[in-house]
Amino acid sequence: MSSSSKLVLYSYWQSSCAWRVRFALNLKGLAYEYRSVNLRKGEQFSPEFKKLNPLCFVPVLVDGDIVVSDSFAILLYLNEKYPQNALLPSDPQLRALNLQASNIVSSSMQPLIMQSILKYIEDKFGPAERQLWVRHNTEKGFQALEKLLKDYAGTYATGEEVYMADVFLAPQTAVAEMRFNIDMSKFPTLNGIYKSCKDLPEFQASVPERQPDAEL
Ligand SMILES: N[C@@H](CCC(=O)N[C@@H](CS)C(=O)NCC(=O)O)C(=O)O
């Protein structure tokens, strides 16, 4: 297939990982076909989807005959293949900061509070333990991110341009605030970054409620 084939994103409206990719695709001005994988109905375990991602997670991006899963890899792929509106700055220090902040969200926050883990905790220890777990892991990550970014942030995480760190941070902040009732006023830098992202039409078009599979 040619490199101009239509991009296809396997997504679920409530997935924060898929949200990152939706935001990034919009920032790059790339049109894509949205294919819903209903995580609540277990569609991620279907044999067809398993062929795309044996881990049974969204998001998966298909670009012609290229299949990329994992939002971190997808963002780096998109950035190399479609260089317009770069998701990483050229300055090595700011680039490293973006990768570090993104990876904190990707590796040290989201995997600890994904729905399957929270269900396990709630089933075994009850809803109060579940909320304590969410709060502890979310605040630990946000404290590290606040410290990391406070001297570099401007309108966005590492200055006046929106980059990969923002793409990871904004959905994670939204989920923390709206789904888990985390008080973001304790993290003024992160809160400011989130507010700036909320003003962007590219972010607004990526929010869960505006996705074709949203169940409101
Ligand atoms: N590191 C992966 C994580 C993907 C992931 O955890 N996806 C979640 C939704 S945010 C999922 O598909 N969960 C389905 C399940 O737990 O069965 C990424 O960034 O894409």
Automatic annotation (TrEMBL):
GO terms for cellular component: cytoplasm. It comes from the Eukaryota. Residues 91-216 form the GST C-terminal domain. One of its GO terms (biological process) is L-phenylalanine catabolic process. It catalyses: RX + glutathione = an S-substituted glutathione + a halide anion + H(+). Transmembrane segments: none annotated. Pfam families: GST_N_2 (PF13409). Residues 5-86 form the GST N-terminal domain. GO terms for molecular function: glutathione transferase activity; maleylacetoacetate isomerase activity. PROSITE patterns: GST_CTER, GST_NTER. Its EC number is 2.5.1.18. SUPFAM superfamilies: GST C-terminal domain-like, Thioredoxin-like. PANTHER family: GLUTATHIONE S-TRANSFERASE ZETA CLASS-LIKE, MALEYLACETOACETATE ISOMERASE. NCBIfam families: maiA. Belongs to the GST superfamily. Zeta family. This is glutathione transferase. It comes from Vitis vinifera. The lineage of its organism: Eukaryota, Viridiplantae, Streptophyta, Embryophyta, Tracheophyta.
